[in-house]
Amino acid sequence: VQLVESGGGLVQAGGSLKLSCAVSGSTSRILAMGWFRQAPGKERDLVAAMSSGGTTYYAESVKGRFTISRDDSKNTLYLHMSSLKPEDTAMYYCAAPQNRLPRIRPQEYKYDVWGQGTQVTVSS
Asked: What angle is formed at CA 110 by the lines to CA 35 and CA 39, rounded to 5 degrees?
C-alpha cells in the first residue's frame, strides 16, 4: 500500500482545508485508515480514523470541527477541517495498518504504513 497526501497549506484561524490521501496498491486488504498530525517537538497523534466498515474515531480536540471520509471509487481518504485554530498547525499524515486482524474500533489498530505528510499552518 502506498499513501500520498495533498491539500495542506496556510490558512487563517477560523478557515477550512480539505486534505486528501491517494491510496494505491492492495487497497482491498486495508481494514482502517487514519489521519495523524505531528507538531514540532511533539509526538505524532491520531486525529481521526475510519474502519473499512465506516466506524469513525475523532480525537477530542477536533470533534465537531474535522470530518474523515473516503471515496472508494477514487481510492481516496479525506480529512475535512473547519474552524481551524493555530494549535492545529502540524504536519498531517495519512496512515494504514499492515495488520490484517480486525479490530472493533479504528483507533485500536497499529498504524504502520505512512504517507510523506502535508503541512498545515494556521495563522492567528
From this structure: 40
